[in-house]
Amino acid sequence: MTAFGCRRIFTDSTSGRNAQRPELEACHAFLAVGDTLVVPSLDRYGRSLADLITMVADLRRREIGFTSLQERIDTTTPGGRLIFHVFAALAEFIRELIVIGTNEGLAAARARGRHGGRPKVFDDDMIAYARTLRERGVAVPDIARKLVIPTGKNKGRHPSVASVYRVLADAGDVVPTAR
């Protein structure tokens, strides 16, 4: 960006899909008539065709140019505007293909009995044992010390007290917390 001659570089840490992007808003406020907004690629500027077209049209209305380095698009010319619309449509199409492929992959994994996310640490027997101990009046920190979570060959660790509270609460037990 500095090699292209940009006066100021704005960097957003949120996704291009997110409508709330403070750095993008600051960038738009910074631009003046005759400036050109330079972005590394179209997908860094916006994820949907409608958003890209709206934002670039707003820049054009404000007499601000738009350049995308990766796609080599310069909307200050009629040909550049045509190429912009073609690339924006392709970017949205590719993103939709990725979403469809991801959803199909997740559905296929679920059909094979696989589920995403972190594996459960407490099995049903451990939960039943913890509930039994709690019903007998054993304090939650003592329950945590009695439980062992298998972590590998002949090894194990004790769950945190907070984890035991959470598991008991998820199991429907009302456990008062010490504060």
TrEMBL record:
The keyword DNA-binding applies. SMART domains: Resolvase (SM00857). This is DNA invertase Pin-like site-specific DNA recombinase. The keyword DNA-binding applies. SUPFAM superfamilies: Resolvase-like. Residues 1-113 form the Resolvase/invertase-type recombinase catalytic domain. Pfam families: Resolvase (PF00239).
